[in-house]
Amino acid sequence: MQLVGLMSALLAAMAAAVCAVPNDCSRISADLTEGSPPDTPVVNLGDKLGLAVGQAEFALLNDRTDGHLLSLNSKSGLVSTRMSIYRDTLISSPGHHRGSCDRSGCVVAIMVQVSYGDSIRLCTVRLRLEERNNHAPEFKVTSPIVEVSELAELDTRVGLRLVVTDRDSPRYGVARLQLTPFDPKDTGLFDVAPLEPNEKDHRVVLLLRGKLDRETKAEHHMLLTAFDGGSPPKSASLNLTVRVRDENDHAPVWVTKNFRFNLTENAEGGQLIVKLEATDEDAGPNGRIIYLFNDPRPSREAQMFYLHPNSGELQVAHGAVLDYERTSVYRIPVVARDRGVVPKQIEQTIIIELQDYNDNVPVISVRGLPVKPGGGPHTLSIRENQPPGQTIGYVVARDDDSGNNSHVECNLGSPGEGKIRFRLQQQQRHKPQVVFKLITDDTFDWEVTPTVQETVWCHDNGVRDSPHRSSSQ
């Protein structure tokens, strides 16, 4: 419940109309170099708005979230870093900062309340993060040794049990791989398959370009080097060993053709997603197939799903909690592998797209103009005998679902509460958040009614299998 306290002795009269600050503050942009040290100045809002120090009061509208990254001088309007900000920081904290990262860079948006005389304004400040090449590529290795049959055909794909990744943005991610044999006689014997575009984790696959003969040479040793997209590039290297062993004439072939599926985030453990199927023309153990996750790490994907090695049934793991807001798309690498002494396998990536289930309720917060001293977080004040139309605070509501499930609408009052003496006026909407002005719709007399209680109701637009959710304060 929102408590609106009327204390005339504590407040100055507010003007009936809101005056504008000297300059437009609806869209202010600034650049910040990634990794800048704490206390680095970013932008001076007072200068941008043509205001002298002390002429206005500045405050972060959402200090609980934005204040974790940035500090704001309430007198001058100087925005500074509170910590070194990296792209990794923004990506690892989904839903906590209004920002976005893509191939062109990262942008953090904050809202600042500016009090100038009798004027109260909201300024949107967009901080563009100028990214740097902070990290070198990294190899995540289960084993640097791979075995290949001496009867393997040219252009055979040899999947390595390792992943190469780079914690930087795609611009500075892994750009190319280079394979260098230690023995000059092995030059041209193996090649590296091209990297998949738009992937962060790259599974390395060797291509056989020449004939193998175990009796001539049982092992081949090579240096694998990964370069990122920096200038100059950063790199990492790994020693590989290819062991030559005997025969298994045929690799499995997928019978399954579709590897992309939709799944609601409230799916229960044991729910079947797909039954994988592959065949192998070989006989005996060389033709019997097992199905496995093709991931060298105990990844989060492997914990969310279960793949039966014999039947090929991919299910939601028992005890798994799928969360669309945390991970909306799962890319699960799988293999169909025969049981030969030197097994052959075929790889594929299963893509599971979660469908949002409306599992988050709107979260409501209120900011007064100003907050009553000693009052609770939802206690606001206004001087008595003021005409209707006075702005006394802001209502901020957010919903961390997606699509219609995150579209929030708010209103005042509930059945049986009688006359509604306030109204809400939408100011800004930046999904998943919406900001309303709380405005008086009546004149108040302290001697008659020293305290007024009003209810703010907010609901999202969930439908059908995801019914709408609501909350109130």
From TrEMBL:
GO annotation, biological process: homophilic cell adhesion via plasma membrane adhesion molecules
Residue ranges constituting the Cadherin domain according to the UniProt record: 140-254, 255-364
Keyword Chaperone part of the UniProt annotation: no
Domain of life: Eukaryota
Record Pfam families: Cadherin
InterPro entries: Cadherin-like_dom, Cadherin-like_sf, Cadherin_CS, Protocadherin/Cadherin-CA
SUPFAM superfamilies: Cadherin-like (SSF49313)
GO terms of molecular function: calcium ion binding
Gene Ontology CC: plasma membrane
Compartments where found: Membrane
Entry keyword set: Calcium, Cell adhesion, Glycoprotein, Membrane, Repeat, Signal, Transmembrane, Transmembrane helix
Keyword Cytoplasm applies: no
Signal peptide boundaries: 1-20
SMART domains linked to this entry: CA
Record's bilayer topology term: Single-pass membrane protein
CDD domains named in the record: Cadherin_repeat (cd11304)
Protein name, entry field: Cadherin domain-containing protein
Lineage: Eukaryota, Metazoa, Spiralia, Lophotrochozoa, Platyhelminthes
